[in-house]
Amino acid sequence: MTQLNRKRIAIIGAGPCGLSQLLAFKQAEQDQLVELICFERQAEWGGLWQYTALTGTDSCGEPVHSSMYRYLWSNGPKEVLEYVDYTFEQHFGKPIASYPPRAVLYDYIVGRAKAGDIRKFIRFRTAVRHVDFDDETKQFSVTVEDLRTHKTTSNLTFDHVIVATGHYTIPNMPEFEGIDRFPGRVLHSHDYRGADEFVGKNLLIIGGSYSAEDIAVQCYKYGAGSITISYRLFPMGFKWPDSIREVPLVQRIEGRTIHFRDGTSVDNIDCIILCTGYRHNHSYMADKLRFRCSSNLYIPFDLYKGIFWVAEPRLAYLGMQNQLYTLNMFDIQAVLVRDVFLGCVTLPDDTRDKRHQNIRQLQVREETLKLDDHEGFSDLQTDYLRDLINCCDPTTVPKFDLDKSNAGMYKFFQDKRDSILTYRDQSFPSIFPPFKQAPVCTTAWIENKDDSIAGYLSSIETV
Amino acid sequence: MTQLNRKRIAIIGAGPCGLSQLLAFKQAEQDQLVELICFERQAEWGGLWQYTALTGTDSCGEPVHSSMYRYLWSNGPKEVLEYVDYTFEQHFGKPIASYPPRAVLYDYIVGRAKAGDIRKFIRFRTAVRHVDFDDETKQFSVTVEDLRTHKTTSNLTFDHVIVATGHYTIPNMPEFEGIDRFPGRVLHSHDYRGADEFVGKNLLIIGGSYSAEDIAVQCYKYGAGSITISYRLFPMGFKWPDSIREVPLVQRIEGRTIHFRDGTSVDNIDCIILCTGYRHNHSYMADKLRFRCSSNLYIPFDLYKGIFWVAEPRLAYLGMQNQLYTLNMFDIQAVLVRDVFLGCVTLPDDTRDKRHQNIRQLQVREETLKLDDHEGFSDLQTDYLRDLINCCDPTTVPKFDLDKSNAGMYKFFQDKRDSILTYRDQSFPSIFPPFKQAPVCTTAWIENKDDSIAGYLSSIETV
């Protein structure tokens, strides 16, 4: 079917979310229902899964996007994020273990994108500088800069804009008394590039969530001297090895001595790593379109179904919530965006007020959860996905067994509680029929220092 | 004299240039000729002279402005930058040596500002987000964000805008093959915070100018293992100590081995420090007002008299050139800006074309200079200052003996050629009558590891 008035769709970002969105629209593009342009600031696709040793500013004068570090291995089982239409086994030609290293995940994500032939829609090294919306014409106006030529192009018009820029780039930096005069190195996890810089050092890690946990364990694995983790609300409480301990929040810093809120202190700290999370930064969006979120919520304000800008649902944001599910959730979000923007489905709440009410109801559920109730948040995000799937066109939505994936989450939380040093050695069953159990690696994760694709694949037990 | 139509003046930045500009306008403000507002993104004044251990992003989500590091001492004699109306001796109550450490310079700069009672004009933690100009009303329109409340205020109008934001914040990052996979630490000098992180390490420093020179010598002083400096155009050629050597530009990086363009290589590099300069970044200025400069020129394009935006001289930029002179040059620039904006003097070239021609003539002189002709550049900037002074109202312009200051520059270059490790131990005469010789420190710079104000002042020989 040919159509003269093809809808013009702008996607901002070619990371996992942007790639899911391009694949979701691919058939509609072939049917000439839509025109797709994806703007990507980086030189390559894959978003935060790209590793670079560089920090700070990139060669185009833009902030380095990646917070990725060497020796990062997945901190959740691959079975709960696997693409429905493109399995790990399909990509690598053999079954792989449940916790792959970064390079394997990157290869998998871009492998599907390559197979989908969607690179042609992406304008690399192109930064979106401004997005506005005309309430009369119902058109978005987008200003972009070609970072290679520094040429700015204004007033590109689109019927829809989909923001897929991620939210793990701009550090959240709380203030601590004396930290600006600390005589050793201070860095945010965004600038952490690997544990080998900290061998033999006494580290203070500030934070109580995934980054703090993973960087502490990696630094232990590679030989840090001592690791003190300072939490804001409550300790993670894992069975830490002897050289890792958890203490309350930093109160003040004097020289290399750190004082904590419980009156205790630690001396001779060499380095402070702030694992204090990230800020959303959508400064390129006009004020009236700008998603703001001061903390990382499962049910963010102002995004209906976690996606559509409440005040103007022609605008969508992907992957802006706190995430337990990742790649497969982005796929479902992208499919719903496509279904809504093409008019294939209509969302239930047809006014701004109703959309806000719907969000508020879900937020109440989030607010009742204790912050360490991992199973509760997993139930919440599983139910969120169930609702998204129910909103999509049932003939095309990717389907998987949500109860099985949620059970996988539960096992993952329990494995970590059992042992923070061995949970990555555990094996999970696939959530797709015939529910095959993943093989394991012949080397335990704590001993395995080869995180290359070849090294990883060769370490997998043949069944 | 009271005037109903006070000119509204916006100054962007409260570093050395912005402070010079506030002081220059102070009398006119008291006479109610002008209204002054200075917008400063940081929490304090003093611009790049503020030290913080933090790198990356600050607590407001803004890029950390400072490129300042521990143990930085002035790399030029204080006599060639001293304020005419506020001497070091006046500030510290005694004569001081010619090369003070950072804290001393910071104290001196903000000391004058305190004495001048100009803090009341500064809106701290306020980022300028956009500046535009209406050709009909001849008014600038300024959008600012209060970084504490995240409240944005648009359409503040001004008769004049003066940009004093500096150009040592956004790193210039050339690409080198393999650097993104270097297994050690890679940082730009912007993120360098002190040599003690590099004790015993083998360093590669890329760059051929002041940052490369100073960081190399500081790392030598504090005990780096070896220092290889890789230059782009030509070596600095100082009489380096044995552990420092200069090599041609990096060609490619493989693991910890660095290959250079002359076919040589060096192994076992632990850390790469890019001393590759900075980029101008005035992205908050509307396109038609935006100063762009890809390299650090003594005679920049588009700035008439090095200051006034050629296309619209109601807009001024301070301190945007490559600098040999600093604090005293900013004062003269600021006085000329005041004289012109208040209508006390008229600049000779009254059309855009004539202004461009004037710049072009000066650029031709800059272009004839070889890049290592330090004396030639000093002559060029001395003549530039002479011309600025001649443009100002002669009754109020700060005057000093330019030949004496230029002679100081010459001596400084020769001292460095004589010995890069001892040039900071030399003493200079004041350029103000009675031309007193500065005292010296009792400890040689290479031995002196106390860079506090108290330590420095107590180390000065009593004459």
From TrEMBL, chains A, B:
Alphabetically list the UniProt keywords. FAD, Flavoprotein, Monooxygenase, NADP, Oxidoreductase
The Gene Ontology terms for molecular function here are:
flavin adenine dinucleotide binding; N,N-dimethylaniline monooxygenase activity; NADP binding
Q: Which family does it belong to?
A: Belongs to the FMO family.
- List the cofactors: FAD
Query: What EC number(s) does its UniProt record assign?
Result: 1.-.-.-
Tell me the SUPFAM superfamilies matching this sequence: FAD/NAD(P)-binding domain
* Enzyme class of the recorded protein, top EC level: oxidoreductase
Its name, as the record gives it, is: Flavin-containing monooxygenase
Checking InterPro entries in the record gives: FAD/NAD-bd_sf, Flavin_mOase, Flavin_mOase-like, FMO-like
* Biological classification of the source: Eukaryota, Metazoa, Spiralia, Gnathifera, Rotifera
